[in-house]
Amino acid sequence: MDDLHSLKKAFLDDIAAVSDLDGLQQIKSRYSGKKGLLTEKLKALSSIPADERRNYGKLVNELKDFIEGTVKEKELAFREIEKERRLLTEKIDITLPGKPFFFGRKHPIYQILAEIKDIFVSMGFGIEEGPEVELDYYNFEALNLPKDHPARDMQDTFYVSDDVVLRTHTSPVQVRVMEKKSPPLKIIAPGKVYRCDSDVSHTAMFHQVEGLMVDTDVSFSDLKGVLELFVHSFFGKDTPVRFRPSYFPFTEPSAEVDIGCIFCSGKGCRICKTTGWLEVMGCGMVNPRVFEMSGYRPEEYTGFAFGMGVERMTMLKYSIDDIRLFYENDLRFLKQF
Ligand code: PHE
Question: How far away, in angstroms, is 171 Cα from ligand 1 center?
Answer without folding.
Answer: 6
